[in-house]
Design a protein that fits this description.
The complex is a heterodimer of chains A (about 280) and B (about 325). Chain A is an alpha+beta fold and about 280 residues long. Helices cover about 45% and strands about 10% of the residues of chain A. In chain A, strands 2-1-5-3-4 form a 5-stranded mixed beta sheet, sandwiched between helices. In chain A, helix 2 runs parallel beside helix 4 and helix 8 runs parallel beside helix 10. The radius of gyration of chain B is 19 Å and the shape is globular. The chains are: A alpha+beta (about 280), B alpha+beta (about 325). The structure holds flavin-adenine dinucleotide (FAD) and FE2/S2 (inorganic) cluster (FES) (2 copies).
Chain lengths: ~280, ~325
Amino acid sequence: MNDHREDEDYLLNGEERPETRADGEKLLDELGIFGVARRRFFEQGLAGGLGVFALQLLAKEKALAAVETAPDAVFAENAGLENAVRVSLKINGAAQSVEIDSRTALVDLLRENLGLTGTKKGCDQGQCGACTVIVDGRRVLSCLTLAARCEGKTVTTVEGLAKGDELHPVQAAFIKHDGFQCGYCTPGQICSAVALLDEAKNGEASAATKNLRATARDLKLSDEEIRERMSGNVCRCGAYPGIVAAIREVQAGRETAQYWQFATEEEIAAAMSAGEEERDAAV
Amino acid sequence: MRPFKFTKAKDEADAVRLVSANRDAQYIAGGTNIVDLMKEDVRRPNELIDISGLKLTRIKTIPSGLSIGALATNTDTANHPLVRQQFPLLSQAILAGASAQIRNMATNGGNLMQQVRCWYFYDVAVACNRREPGSGCSALGGLNRRYAIFGWSESCVAVNPSDMAVALAALDAVVNVTETSGTTGYGIPITEFHKLPGDAPHRDKALEPGELITSIELPRNNFAANSYYLKVGERTSYSFALVSVAAALELAGGRIKQARVALGGVANKPWRAYDAEKMLVGKTPSREAFEAAAAEEMKKAQPLEHNEYKVELGRRAITLALLRAFKGAAE
Ligand SMILES: Cc1cc2nc3c(=O)[nH]c(=O)nc-3n(C[C@H](O)[C@H](O)[C@H](O)COP(=O)(O)OP(=O)(O)OC[C@H]3O[C@@H](n4cnc5c(N)ncnc54)[C@H](O)[C@@H]3O)c2cc1C
Ligand code: FES
Ligand code: FES
């Protein structure tokens, strides 16, 4: 068949069928594959028999798995880094030096390259705060921070807050006050709260600060202040009351009672036998 | 995200040279806007020139008032004692925007340059004159609840999202810029920095491509005791303004000697309410005087299909902001 001859021509002479190229380009656009991976598709993919059909399968697979890197993985063996940048930085006290694609966001460097999966990715657009980490003492969004710009910086993630087995006071307070439900937003909430303590110590203002012209240090924050200062961390489970209570306790430096406890053995036994009695009564 | 080359600028001249040499290059300062737009494929630079290392972070007193570095972060600017003391309106406006994390990253220059938050601009599958000149405006006949009521055109109805710029407009700030030719600079009054869309919404800043913002100057004034920034959004915090008002009064002998009113969320630039200001000068401050000035300004509003509510909201917000400024609530 004519088609076959053209395919052979392409394999022998490197002249591909124009419509194949156009189809491929369109699909690669939709897949968001650019640069090296794209060129490699045409150089190796088509030549190696990985055609538009295969790419369509990949597209489906990608849609199903929603894994950004899946199509690239085909070429993983010989994939070089495009626009490689070397970055040396300190993460949770340890010096790291990594070579990355210039597109890498800090959240991806932490999670994908370094296995520090404590930092979470929520919206990937700066709108939820789940990816909050502390860079050079300041809370920032790691999804909008290019890792390439972290040369020489000091990064603290939720993994770096505890001292050995001893939790950071904010971590302990989140447990004590039930500051989470599913826990997905929690690493971001905690990093944010830790930085908030320093901001209050330095006398930094917020939109809830009443008198901006009067400056002072060591602020004691009202609940309204805490809520405003934490507004960049969204919690889908709505654990806000516990989050505010936890921060209030650490910020004020005053212990308040924990309103929940683990049940004792006796309480569990009593509850279970009560359940049995009820069942018996119902029969 | 498309691949791009990452280049660190050594100094101002280097930055300007690098961006001028490649028309597909862009500056990156805090990155909170450009990185987002690149992830969404709305912006496609093939090179980012990192200017975060430039020495443009100082906030200092100058003969005419205060100079604020283009690369000072929004947080450092809002918290600087000189800003809080002399221009609390600016601190208030900055703190009303975004979140602590974003303000820690965002720079003053980047804030002025940020793009509209129009969802049609962000959606690369639909027409947008700003993203693709000549393709049409999807918001004009679309879901335009949050869009402009002043100064829009058939080619674009989006609003400028910056809170900081609204305060700067009320404070008659000047934006200092380095030309592409080298190290010579010039100043652009803030009210001319952002432009109404006209038929070129893709060119809505007065900057020429490659020009670098170096600082923002705030002329001395007597508004510090009586100023207020009021922001009305869908949430109390961490949401863009539906309408915002920067109000400042200078009082003398029980009368209004000078007034400044600027609105956010209503046009593609901070909207100076000159008519309202004119009506206030010489008056004895009162709710009635404030209401009359607010009504006068909003008379010219041209709402779209879904944002008629902004006219009434704007009227009330101007009145309330003026009342609070008069009471000295920013103090
Ligand atoms: C979820 C979210 C909520 C937000 N809410 C608000 C809000 O309520 N109110 C508000 O006002 N803002 C809000 N913002 C916007 C935020 O304030 C801006 O993104 C920020 O100010 C941009 O500054 P940057 O330094 O990060 O800019 P970048 O992203 O680094 O740059 C933005 C643009 O400016 C150009 N640029 C940067 N610096 C210079 C310079 N010196 N000279 C010339 N060009 C320059 C860049 O080339 C780029 O095109 C929000 C942002 C997010 C993500
Ligand atoms: S993942 Fe960064 S703010 Fe949502
Ligand atoms: S605990 Fe589930 S999102 Fe906050």
